[in-house]
Structures are given as structure tokens and as C-alpha cells.
Amino acid sequence: MASKISASNSRDLQPVETLKNKENTRLIWLDGNIDDSKDSMHTQNLLLEFNPAAQFYTDSTRCVDFVKSIQGEQILLIISGALARDVLPQISRVRSVIAVFIFCRNREFHVKLMSEYSKIVDIFIVQDELLRLLRDTMTIVEKQAFTFSLFDQTQKSTRDLSKDSASFLWNQLLLYVLKKMPQDDQAKNEMLTTCSNYYAMNKKELNKIEQFRKSYSREQAIKWYTDECFLYKLLNNA
């Protein structure tokens, strides 16, 4: 049985201590009030469902150091209003930070920051609204990252995407996915065990993994890849 990732073990870590990320995006939450209280742990566990490599920081210096150490990943940063003014100047030009979400109790007090820092997506006082947009943003970023990588490999431009090139792109997608898919039962089981361990806290993904284990065939490769589940995230970053 897969062991669960502990939210409390994902706090204020040095770069060498963090879990290896198997996706293109990484969530980071910086808030001086993160602790072991019921509400805080609930939020941390929700974020770990979105991204098992999510990191939580109460210490601004450690958070900034970690952000600056990241290479080859795209960071979505959630930051408390109390720490935003001090931290944003330090990370606003860090290329790996692609989006910032401010989570606070007083939107109007911090709204001016949106005109000063273009990476701020929005300012939230309701957690459900924050999580909804965060999830949608992650899905878009993951799929966009794969599309861009295909264009880089084929030296295509989105401006030249005609019917012929769209067909070519689809064929490239099929070849890519088939090459990445496990070729025998042993390889498939090894991949699914890795996925189950990584998504141990995400019941939805675990159900998808089990469904894949029982029903996958190579003819369904594209169907599985384009489904919003564990597969396209991990294959993109393999």
C-alpha cells in the first residue's frame, strides 16, 4: 500500500530535501501561519492532491531561496497578503515563477499590487475560489508545456498551423504517447506502482490508475493521454 506524503514533512525545506517533482508545474505556498491546525492541514492536503511535490513555507528567506533554485519547472506561488510586499520584489523576475496567487483576508488592501506585478493572477479571500482557479491554471500550463515542446521538436510555429500541420501534430502526439507508454506488463506495473506512490493522497487519480491498470490497450493511448489525469502530467515530464 502506498504511503501518504506528510504535509508537515513538506515545510520550510532546503532544496536538497524536497520531493522530486514528476510534473512540469510545482505549487508553493508561503504563509507565516501555516501550522498543524485542522484548517491549515486541510488546505495543505488539498494542495498535495493537486501536486504531490508541493512545498509549504512559513519562512520567507527559505522560500525565496528554494524558488531561485528551481530549474526546469514552472512555479505557481500562493502567498499570504502579509508577506506579499516583501517577497514579490525578490521573485518577480525569476523566470520559473509563472503565476502568483495572493490569499488574504482583505482584498482591497492588497489590490494595488496587481498593477505593480504582472505575474499576480488574482487576490483571493475565499479558499474554494483560489483552489478552483489554481487547478484550472495547472491543467492549462501542463497541456501548454507539452504543445510547446512538440513545436520546438518539429520547428513548427502556431502561426503556421494549417489542416496539414494539425494532422502532422496529431500524428506526432500519437507517436510520442506510444513511445512513452510501457511496452509490456512488467513495465506497466512498475509505472503504475510509481504513479500510485506519487499520487497516494489523491483518490481521484488512484481510481484512474486502477482503471488504467484494468482496461488500457495501445489503441486507447491518445484517449488516455488527453484525459485530465495522472498520465499526461507524468509522461510530459518523463
Describe this structure in words.
It is a single chain. The chain has 238 residues and is an alpha/beta fold. It has 2 domains: 7-141, 3-Layer(aba) Sandwich (Rossmann fold); 156-236, no CATH class. Helix content is 54%, strand content 12%. It has helices at 38-50, 60-69, 81-91, 107-110, 113-116, 127-154, 163-180, 185-198, 203-215, 221-226, 230-236; strands spanning 25-30, 55-57, 74-80, 97-103, 120-124. The longest helix is centred in the middle third of the chain and has 28 residues, at 127-154. The radius of gyration is 19 Å and the shape is elongated. The chain starts with 24 loop residues before the first strand and ends with a helix. 25% of the residues are buried.
List the helices and strands and how they pair.
Elements (H helix, E strand, L loop, with lengths): L24 E6 L7 H13 L4 E3 L2 H10 L4 E7 H11 L5 E7 L3 H4 L2 H4 L3 E5 L2 H28 L8 H18 L4 H14 L4 H13 L5 H6 L3 H7 L2
Helix pairs in contact: 2-3, 8-9
Q: How many structural units, i.e. domains?
A: 2
CATH homology superfamily of the largest domain: Response regulator
Flag low-confidence runs: 1-5, 154-164
Approximate helicity band: 40-55%
| Average of the residue pLDDT scores | 79
Shape: elongated
Question: What does this entry show, briefly?
Answer:
With 238 residues, the chain is α/β, with parallel strands linked by helices. The protein has eleven helices and five strands; from the N terminus they run E-H-E-H-E-H-E-H-H-E-H-H-H-H-H-H. Helix content is 54%, strand content 12%.
